[in-house]
Amino acid sequence: MTAIFFISFGLAFSGAMMPGPLLTVTVSESPRKGFVTGPLLILGHALLEATLLVLLLLGLAPLFSNPVFFSSVSMAGGGILVWMGIGMLKSLPGLSVSWEGSGNRNNNLILKGILMSLANPYWTIWWATIGMGYILQSLRFGIPGIAVFFAGHILADLVWYSLVSGTVSRGKKLFTDRVYRWLIGVCASFLLAFAVYFFISGVKKIAEMRISGL
Predict the structure, then answer these.
(1) Which pLDDT score, from 0 to 100, does residue 103 have?
(2) DSSP the chain
(3) Where in the chain are the domains?
(4) Cβ distance 156 to 16 under 8 Å?
(5) Burial level of 213, CB count in 10 A (0-12/13-18/19+)?
(6) Which residues of 4-14 are buried (b: 16+ CB within 10 A; e: fewer)?
(7) Contact predicate 4/151, CB 8 Å
(8) Distances, alpha carbon 35 to alpha carbons 27, 88, 122, 145, in Å
């Protein structure tokens, strides 16, 4: 059980450090909303992963690794990122780093954690392949094994994203409104770039299916 926890933690931590939509949103939101940005985003991420974990245990792994499913998620995810990226760009003229978020605003971070996870098709594929392999190993210890695996996985995400949001928010005194707008512009550009990448990935998968006659 101890080995399961630390292997899950290490695997998830290495994955969490890779750039992606969730990291981009963490960096963009932390100057205004502070340290809570990382934990709230990961709360949304964890809720979605818990749901996916249950679905995988119910036998839906083949669906999630299906090329048609991958293409659909890629296109939908690209659409979500385009919507968020354009929204961020449109908000640039009125942005101020001194703005303090309300409780309702912070609640939006939970939703963003869910959306940014859903927007990444490779997140779903990881769980349906690599993640499923570790789930099967953990199942040898029953539900406690799954719980330990999931705890290690989520703790790794929480540690990394809390570190990122904490570091960025502590340096918010260095952010003038001008610098902050530049930061948001760069983050929005990254989201749009991820969107293009996901769209291309989806189109390639469709082309591969047509070539193979699926």
Answers:
(1) 44
(2) -HHHHHHHHHHHHHHHTS--HHHHHHHHHHHHHGGGHHHHHHHHHHHHHHHHHHHHHTT-HHHHT-HHHHHHHHHHHHHHHHHHHHHHHHHGGG--TT----HHHHHHHHHHHHHHHHT-HHHHHHIIIIIHHHHHHHGGGHHHHHHHHHHHHHHHHHHHHHHHHHHHHHTGGG--HHHHHHHHHHHHHHHHHHHHHHHHHHHHHHHHHHHHT-
(3) 2-212
(4) yes
(5) exposed
(6) bbebbbebbbe
(7) no
(8) 11, 20, 27, 31
Nearest-angstrom CA–CA distance, 119 and 194: 9
pLDDT at res. 43 = 96
Phi, psi of 201 (to 5 degrees): -60, -40
Q: pLDDT tens digits, residue range 131-152?
A: 888 888 898 899 999 999 999 9
Query: What's the predicted TM-score (pTM) here?
Result: 0.82
75 with 202: CB under 8 angstroms? yes
**Residue 171 phi, psi dihedral angles, 5° rounding:** -95, 15
Output the six-digit token pair for 138.
């953990």
CB 153 within 8 A of CB 49: yes
Q: Which residue has 């006659």 as its token pair?
A: 213
> Residue ranges of the chain with pLDDT lower than 70?
96-107, 172-175, 212-214
